[in-house]
Design brief:
- With 219 residues, the chain is an alpha/beta fold.
- Helices cover 37% and strands 24% of the residues.
- The protein contains seven helices and nine strands, in the order ααβαβαββααβαββββ.
- The strands form two sheets. The protein has a seven-stranded mixed beta sheet, with helices on both faces. Strands 7-8 form a two-stranded antiparallel ribbon.
- α1 packs parallel to α4.
- The longest helix has 18 residues.
- The two termini are 17 Å apart.
């Protein structure tokens, strides 16, 4: 594991996200506002573009870990994917995601479940593809023991993902090398998605990292 540790934050607590999605659900019900898209619309389009460019079957079983308002799954459904599952430990997030899917006319292609990926999620079958857009970041900020939670995350991911299955993660807290360190031994890097760059003081870098991993067959 990387020796780097992030400063614990309320962003790593369920209480914070319960409050966030309670407000976003109320806002959607009152004004039809779908809420924040983590890392912007470009982050969703990059994932969808990668899956379609490499012709991943439209009937692939896809899990969105910490789905939030479900907009990534909405975009996948619009692209033709029809075997989609979204999970989140916030009941209001799932209620919001279901409402948005109904509004967008894609609810028939997506199953939502209120469950904690680290504690209570026990799928009947493994998935072809798992997606994470910010959830691992939140786990990494958990004040109750982030390093142990990250280990639990990797263990659960390997139980959830088929051998040779794909894991696509978007992170703003971890660099490419750090993510490679966290997931080494269980997954191999397959690709890196292009993300926006920034320049400061003569140096350039990425504000967001997006990687595609493949689970090893012998794990």
């Amino acid at each position: 594991m990387s020796e780097t540790e992030l400063t614990p934050s309320k962003l790593g607590t369920k209480e914070h996200w319960d409050a966030v999605y309670s407000r976003e659900l109320q806002t959607f019900q009152e004004y039809g506002d779908e809420g924040e898209i983590w890392f912007g619309e470009g982050s969703m389009k990059r994932v969808v573009r990668w899956l379609t460019t490499y012709k991943k079957p439209l009937n692939s079983t896809i899990l969105d870990i910490g789905t939030g308002n479900g907009m990534l799954l909405v975009e996948l459904a619009k692209a033709g994917y029809n075997n989609l599952t979204g999970i989140d430990y916030c009941p209001d997030a799932i209620a919001l995601a279901k409402s948005i899917c109904e509004k967008e006319g894609v609810s028939q292609d997506i199953i939502f479940q209120v469950t904690d990926f680290l504690a209570t999620f026990h799928p009947a079958e493994q998935f072809d593809i798992c997606l994470d857009k910010g959830t691992y970041d939140a786990v990494s900020l958990d004040p109750s023991g982030a390093e142990e939670k990250r280990k639990q995350y990797v263990q659960t991911l390997c139980r959830t993902l088929k051998p040779h299955g794909l894991f696509i993660i978007t992170s703003c807290n971890w660099t490419r090398d750090e993510l490679l360190c966290h997931f080494q031994g269980e997954l191999d890097i397959l690709d890196e998605l292009p993300t926006p760059t920034f320049s400061f003081g003569g140096n350039s870098g990425h504000s967001v990292t997006a990687l595609v991993f493949q689970r090893r067959a012998n794990v």
